[in-house]
Amino acid sequence: YGKNTIKFLRLHREGKKHFVKEVEVCTHIRLTSAQEYLEENNSLVIPTDTIKNIVLVLAQKNGIPTLEQFAIDICKHFMTTFYQVAYVKAYVQEVPWQRLHENGVPHTHSFICVPDGIRFCEAELCRNGPLLVFAGIKDLKLMKTTQSGFEGFYKNEHTTLPERSDRVLCGELFCKWSYGECRNFDFDCIWYTNKIRECILEAFSGPPDSGEYSPSYQKTVNRIQMLILSNVSQVQVIEVILNNIYFEVIDMKNLGLTNDKEVLIPVETPYGSCTCTLGRKKFLEA
């Protein structure tokens, strides 16, 4: 049990320059006993309001150096403070605030919320067990208007989908990876220097002047995973979910117009989804 959707803004000041982290935290714990379920005995139960207050106190005392470190701090606090806690999991996601720039000069205290994907992380800790850390990005919408098709697929009497060699490829992406047993990584350095988000964009789009042909959503997902695994050695296993967003060309013949893929409408439901988990052989064998 635990507390979901603990939302707050952490403001850090260094002279005139301000830094912000707005996050949403979910913290769940499992106790060594189930007596509150079986015996109507609440003596070991930590109230969820207490869980919420602990998260806020940790944010005030320690700040949020990285999302991953904050999730680790939450896990370690519950495990070291409460003898009755057998397992703790902390999920942290960040609101995408970016510092404003005026004529290339960063503003000291103004920010803009940019919807270019939400960074998140998870940490898990069992008593007498390893600390596991996961990270990811979600709600990242991507589109390319050509260099995509879908041909040569299996057909039977129920198949109505036509083959296409040129189509709009659009989807909402969820990407989550595992660092395995945490080894005191510099998580922000991995995120910004290795540029995992940029790897996703590069694998999806291809070179800026020519692109790269995608024969399927599945192949695009694989390219994303392979590029991240080849560029970021700390990533051990990576899961990608690409929810397809379809667009249909509007027939404008009755309006006396020819619509050469210039006006399209989104197909809300149903939508396809492609999911794949890929990992390093040595990690999976372990």
Automatic annotation (TrEMBL):
Biological-process GO terms, alphabetical: purine nucleobase catabolic process; urate catabolic process
Keyword Oxidoreductase: yes
An annotated Gene Ontology molecular function: urate oxidase activity
UniProt catalytic activity: urate + O2 + H2O = 5-hydroxyisourate + H2O2
Pathway, per record: Purine metabolism; urate degradation; (S)-allantoin from urate: step 1/3
Binding site for 5-hydroxyisourate: 48-49, 150, 167, 218, 244
Highest taxon listed in the record's lineage: Eukaryota
Amino-acid positions noted as binding O2 in the UniProt annotation, renumbered to this chain: 48, 244
Any single GO CC term annotated in Swiss-Prot or TrEMBL for this entry: peroxisome
Keyword rRNA-binding: no
EC number in record: 1.7.3.3
Residues noted as binding urate in the record, renumbered to the chain: 48-49, 150, 167, 218, 244
One Pfam family, short name: Uricase
Subcellular location: Peroxisome
InterPro entries in the cross-refs: Uricase
Keyword line: Oxidoreductase, Peroxisome, Purine metabolism
Principal cellular location given in the protein's record: other
Function of the molecule: Catalyzes the oxidation of uric acid to 5-hydroxyisourate, which is further processed to form (S)-allantoin.
Family as reported in the entry's similarity comment: Belongs to the uricase family.
Protein name: Uricase
UniProt organism field: Eudyptes filholi
The gene coding this protein: UOX
